[in-house]
Amino acid sequence: MKKKKILIIVAHPDDEILGCGGSIIKFSKNCTIKTIFTCKTHDGRNSIKNSDNNKKRQITAQKVAKYLKIKNPLFLNYPGLKMNRSDITKMAQSIYDEILKFKPNIIFSHCIDDNHHDHRVTAEAVLIATRPSPKTEFIKNILSMEIPSASERLFSRKKSFKPNYFIDIEATYKKKLELLSKFYTKELLPYPNSRSLKSIKTLIEHRGNLVNLKFAEAFEIIRIIQ
Predict the structure, then answer these.
(1) Neighbouring-strand partners of residue 224
(2) How many angstroms separate the CA atoms of 108 and 133, rounded?
(3) Per-residue pLDDT at 30 exceeds 80
(4) How far is 90 from 184, CA to CA, in rounded Å?
């Protein structure tokens, strides 16, 4: 039996671990996993310092992938904070091309109503790229993730993140937290901010408790084909 393929499509390095790091670790032994990062980091400032920061985070993401023994990530480098309709169409085509190459069975991406613009455009581009088609019939599951500090109160203001798919990460949540503290320390914030390690652990516990588990990552189902 062939290994299942999982594709994680997120805006920036750190989103992959914040949103589904425990699941990546859980499935990495039995699945082929690849990450696509769609946007440049803080591209709205257009400074040399910002460019250097983008390169550093890409190097960090490569280190994370190597540490997890998953495939080397792909960086699309779209201007996340400045993206317009035309850019989203181009991003969707870029993602579609990579989907045809990798042929994933499962895709994880952002919530379409996430507070961050670069997260929303990434999610929209994923939905465009994964429209049902004979060419992409290998895609069986599409799940949207939550990102602490970005998904608690959604952009529409009338909605909230309502998970209906849970992955038990009791065996891997500690390593998820270790990865964040080892590689993405600069992206973490002091407690009680929702991006603090303590708050992230609390969220993992809360999501688990919703379905009688100790620790879980939670997702909204976009598509499941059995």
Answers:
(1) 141
(2) 19
(3) yes
(4) 29
Tens-digit pLDDT profile for residues 162-176: 999 999 999 999 999
Question: Token pair for residue 122?
Answer: 């990434």
pLDDT at 49: 58
Q: What is the layout of strands, in order, in the sheet containing 74-78?
A: 74-78, 31-39, 4-10, 106-110, 141-145, 216-224, 165-168
Tens digits of residue pLDDT in 35-44? 999 999 864 4
Quick one: average pLDDT of 76-98? 94
Whole-number Å distance between alpha carbons of 180 and 55: 18
Rounded CA-CA distance 200/97 in Å is 34
Find residue 166's DSSP bridge partners: 218
Domains and their CATH numbers in the chain:
4-224 (3.40.50.10320)
